[in-house]
């Protein structure tokens, strides 16, 4: 089982990670805004993450860390 962590203060809400997730587990947090004024990414169900790291690979700001 994989664990995702996010540097939410650096996320600019571009959505590239959301499109890259094969399980469609990521979304922009509708109720949070970071210090840059963007909705940061969050995972909807950590238990379903397969740890492929496509999201981390696509992130231009290195916001996502995948631990297996």
Task: Describe the structure concisely for a colleague.
This protein has 68 residues and is an alpha+beta fold. The protein has helices at residues 16-20, 54-58; strands at residues 3-6, 26-28, 41-43, 64-67.
Q: What do these coordinates show?
A:
This protein is α+β, with helices and mostly antiparallel strands and 68 residues long. It has two helices and four strands, in the order βαββαβ. It has a single domain (3-67), classed as Alpha-Beta Plaits, CATH 3.30.70.20. Strands 1-4 form a two-stranded antiparallel ribbon. The longest helix is centred in the first third of the chain and has 5 residues, at 16-20. The model has no long low-confidence stretch (mean pLDDT 97).
Key attributes of the depicted protein:
15% helix, two-stranded antiparallel ribbon, globular, Alpha-Beta Plaits, 68 residues
Helix content: 10-25%
Looking at CATH, which topology would you report?
Answer: Alpha-Beta Plaits
What is the count of β-strands? Answer: 4
Beta-strand percent range? 15-25%
Summarize the biggest pleated sheet: 2 strands, antiparallel
Output the radius of gyration: 11 Å
Kindly give the count of domains: 1
> Whole-number average pLDDT?
97
